[in-house]
Amino acid sequence: MIVIEGCFALHLSQEKRTEEHMDNHNNPHPREEEKKDVFSDEPDLEDFLSEEQEDAPARKKARSFFAKFMAYAIALSLVISVLAVWVRVFNMPSFSFLEKSNELSKIENIQNYKEAVVTIEGNGVKGTGFNIAEEGTIVTNYHVIENMTSITVIFPSGDIMQATVTEQFPDLDIAMLQVEGTDLPYLEIKEGKGWGAGDPIYVIGNPLAYNQIVMEGDISKSEDRLYLTAPIEKGNSGSPVIDSDGKVIGVVYAMTVPAIGRGKEPEGLAVPVNEIPVLQ
């Protein structure tokens, strides 16, 4: 039994070797087929390119959407900025002082005062000034003309003149200009100090986007500066403060900004003419 089993085992072993030999003869490179089987499931390069090409339109669409979104956002921001300016210029208080100005401008004396109040322009800046002599001596604020390389003075009559700076008082925020003219309308300067708290006044100037606006108020306090209850806006710098006799008693240069919650209204600030050496 042992021998038989041994022979049987040997026979099987020989048969197995014979089968392996035949397999090797039929497939001399078995490992190459195994390698092929290992990599047979990997996608081809064309598959990657195809997927990229399919994703390209989606990415392009996303970029296009983002670009449009940014363009709309910028446009909206510009529109809001413009609207903010227009709201500032055309708000209800503006219409209120326009109505008041039109009413005051019907007074003959005020019509005459307005003829001597000029617009000063240069380098994109606009302010107010007023003439005090027939030959053309203009009073305004120093900060109005400080950075102007060319100064243009426009009278209500439509006369446009180039001006030169003749005097500067930065500490007082006052500047004197000269234009070439004759028989120009002018305002008279009050001599001495004949005003006090409670006195009525007029202010004529070019606030915001308007020209020749007349406002009335009172002197609330008179010290080294005049405090005025008349509404003052940007563009009023250099406006004359005129008393009930039609004389200039001050030059507007700023306005106060009360602390929030105190219930106080802003007030105009003016340099009294008796503080300006060349006007005395």
From TrEMBL:
InterPro entries: Peptidase_S1_PA, Peptidase_S1_PA_chymotrypsin, Peptidase_S1C. It holds the Pfam family Trypsin_2. Keywords: Hydrolase, Membrane, Protease, Serine protease, Transmembrane, Transmembrane helix. It comes from the Bacteria. Residues 15-41 are annotated as: Disordered. Residues 15-39 have a biased composition (Basic and acidic residues). GO terms for molecular function: serine-type endopeptidase activity. One of its GO terms (biological process) is proteolysis. This is Trypsin-like peptidase domain-containing protein. The chain crosses the membrane at residues 69-87.
